[in-house]
Specification:
- The chain is mainly alpha-helical and 164 residues long.
- It has one domain.
- The chain is built from 5 helices and 2 strands; from the N terminus they run ββααααα.
- Strands 1-2 form a two-stranded antiparallel ribbon.
- Helix 2 runs antiparallel to helix 3.
- The termini are far apart.
Length: 164
């Protein structure tokens, strides 16, 4: 018994992706009305600023609580954990914010390279904290501040939920 031959040609509207067939993506940019582009850019700017402000609020809250609970050394440790993510993320958000003012915006390649650089920078800063902080670093406070800064978007969700 022989099986019928299968044509290997792909349908014209689809292309072979890594995990199977995916829709073909047009290389032409969307032709949106100017007013819609302004609205999208305005919302992106507000959201980027909200993320940075929420990280700052949560980070400094954790630093203040750390000083109150564990003293000056715990506060410095929490500040190091907070800053190791906040600084790279703020620089990346500022880059994205500047992209909203350009005619072209920020393409996906710039976004992913920036995201990679942000994560790598955070890891390097954490390494430097451990390298130069030595025994003065209280890693519990570093990790708590880092996690609180990473998860600060919960503050945005809570505030947005209260508004509704």
């Amino acid at each position: 018994m022989t099986l019928p031959e299968h044509k290997s040609e792909q349908p014209p509207a689809l292309t072979q992706g890594l995990f199977g067939y995916i829709d073909r993506v047009s290389e032409a940019p969307l032709d949106l009305p100017v007013e819609v582009k302004r609205q999208i850019d305005g919302r992106a700017r507000r959201d980027l600023i909200k993320v940075i402000l929420s990280q700052a609020v949560v980070g400094f809250l954790v630093v203040g609580l750390s000083v109150a609970i564990g003293g000056y050394s715990a506060g410095l440790s929490a500040l190091a954990g907070f800053a190791s993510y906040f600084l790279p993320n703020t620089l990346f958000a500022l880059r994205l914010l500047l992209g909203t003012y350009g005619a072209k915006g920020t393409d996906f390649f710039v976004f992913f390279v920036g995201e990679f650089a942000k994560v790598l920078s955070a890891l390097v800063l954490l390494f430097l904290v451990g390298r130069f902080g030595g025994d003065r670093i209280n890693w519990l406070y570093v990790v708590i501040a880092l996690i609180a800064t990473l998860k600060s978007y919960f503050l945005i969700m809570c505030v947005e939920g209260i508004k509704r």
